[in-house]
Design brief:
The complex is a heterodimer of chains A (284) and B (169). Chain A is built from 5 helices and 12 strands. Chain A has 284 residues and is of the alpha+beta class. Chain A folds into 2 domains: 2-37; 39-96 and 111-267, Rod shape-determining protein MreC, domain 1 (Thrombin, subunit H). In chain A, strands 1-2-5-4-3-12 form a 6-stranded antiparallel beta barrel. A 6-stranded antiparallel β-barrel of chain A has the order 6-7-8-11-10-9. By secondary structure, chain B is mainly α. Chain B starts with a helix and ends with a helix. The chains are: A alpha+beta (284), B mainly alpha (169).
């Protein structure tokens, strides 16, 4: 016993060293499991979100000019779409008898948005995250989709009371279900480390047709994103070793180094759809 | 003694905030990341016991991890770096020299020796952090490029910070 104590005292530095190394390795390799329970180890905790919030109140003004231009562009395209839809609606209303066509309003109100500011952002790691200044108090829950004025940017990961951490689209571990607009070709969008403006759609079927410049949108197969939110545009086709599938190179719509204001998507049907899936799984 | 304590406490917080709020958002040419918070560890006095150096380094890395959402990465690199620091220091300062009380800086070590010490330590830390971040050799050229460019950028920045501190004191 005495020898053991002597041994520990003599090599105490090594014990402390090994202890710290083990502690950091636990965080490093088991971090994702910790995060499900604890918000304190992420940038969404009270102290760091306050610090980032304070800095953001200064730096938030830096890119307003570019962001304003983006918003104007988006606004113009949406206005165009509204006019088109109104014309179509007018056309159909005259065709159908007004009594028999009672419009259901449930579909329109399915999605709700929470506006939030990005207070911390990173793009140069293989696994990138960003932090926003809204949390559980505003009804944000893990798994919700996040978009900015240009398109999809990420998925909510950890939620604190007044801040949340978002898994950025620029994260090698996160994949998004997408399709080419106006077609039914579904693929999975992944980002490879390096360029924050380029992502890849893997496992596209060999027979599918596409044109350079086609818009890539969300597929709507999950409750995270509604169908048809823009993600990027097709640049080119990448050769792969697999004969049956190929990969598409996609230019992302959002400018990730300059994220500022984002919207978190609340899906009112999420609980219902998820419980249906559970019901389905239980019966099979 | 208490003056030194306050000095290092301020240095800890200042380096943490500088890293989290400014340097984490800088990426030169898409590869070079300035990692300036290691200046706190580099500047710890050589007379401090290894246990304390280990603890402070781990805490520093842990805090940076929290701010930049990289669980355990900087904590692990800092812990190993704390051990390596003394070895690197004795590499350039022969043992018979009396250096127990020395705080590594330009004014105490001289420009040439300090440059060698600083370059080796930054290279050591950048190697550690990018090895841990990638954890594979599949992106070897990119990783090497990041290690070299980040060490050079960090080295230049830290040299600047150190000469500023030397002029003030």
């Amino acid at each position: 016993m005495r020898n053991l104590l002597n041994f520990i005292i003599r090599y105490n530095t090594w014990f402390i060293f090994i202890f710290y190394v083990l502690l950091s390795c636990t965080l490093l390799f088991n971090g994702r499991n910790f995060y499900q329970q604890s918000v304190y180890l992420t940038s969404a905790n009270g102290v760091s979100s306050t610090v980032y919030g304070m800095t953001n109140s200064v730096t938030g003004y830096f890119n307003l000019k570019e962001i304003n231009a983006d918003l104007q562009r988006r606004n113009a395209s949406l206005e165009n779409e509204v006019l088109n839809l109104q014309n179509q609606l007018k056309y159909y209303v005259t065709m159908v008898d007004a009594d028999s066509a009672s419009m259901s309003s449930t579909h329109a109100s399915r999605f709700d948005y929470v506006i939030a500011s990005v207070i911390n952002n990173s793009v140069h790691h293989p696994r990138n995250y960003f932090t926003i200044n809204k949390g559980a108090n505003d009804g944000i829950k893990p798994g919700m989709g996040v978009v900015d004025q240009n398109g999809v940017v990420g998925i909510v990961n950890v939620v604190g009371s007044n801040s949340s951490r978002i898994i950025s689209l620029l994260n090698t571990t996160q994949h998004f279900s997408v399709k080419i607009k106006n077609t039914d070709y579904i693929g999975s969008l992944s980002w490879y480390e390096g360029n924050p403006g380029i992502a890849y759609i893997e496992e596209m079927a060999q027979h599918m047709q596409f044109h350079v410049g086609d818009t890539v949108v969300t597929s709507g197969f999950s409750t995270t994103f509604p169908e048809g939110i823009p993600v990027g545009t097709v640049i080119s086709r990448v050769r792969t070793t697999d004969e049956n599938f190929f990969t598409l190179k996609v230019k992302l719509m959002s400018d990730f180094p300059r994220l500022s204001t984002v919207r978190v998507i609340k899906d009112d049907f999420k609980a219902e759809l998820d419980s249906l899936q559970l019901y389905d799984a239980a019966n099979n | 003694m208490s003056r030194e304590l306050i000095y290092y406490a301020i240095l800890f917080v200042a380096m943490l905030l500088l890293q989290a709020l400014i340097c984490n958002h800088i990426v030169l040419f898409n590869v070079a990341v300035p990692i300036i918070f290691i200046y706190f560890i580099i500047r710890l006095p050589m007379s401090l016991s290894t246990n304390w150096v280990l603890t402070l380094s781990f805490l520093m890395g842990f805090c940076v991890d929290i701010f930049s959402d990289t669980p355990g990465m900087n904590a692990l690199a800092c812990t190993i770096f704390a051990i390596a620091r003394r070895k690197i220091f004795t590499l350039y300062n022969s043992r018979d020299e009396h250096h127990a009380e020395i705080v590594p800086s330009i004014s105490t070590l001289g420009f040439a020796t300090y440059c060698k010490y600083l370059l080796t330590t930054t290279l050591c830390y950048c190697t550690l952090i990018f090895l841990i971040e990638y954890f594979s050799f599949s992106h070897l050229p990119m990783m090497l490029l990041k290690i070299v460019s980040s060490s050079v950028l960090t080295f230049l920045l830290l040299l600047g910070i150190d000469s500023l501190m030397a002029r003030q004191s």
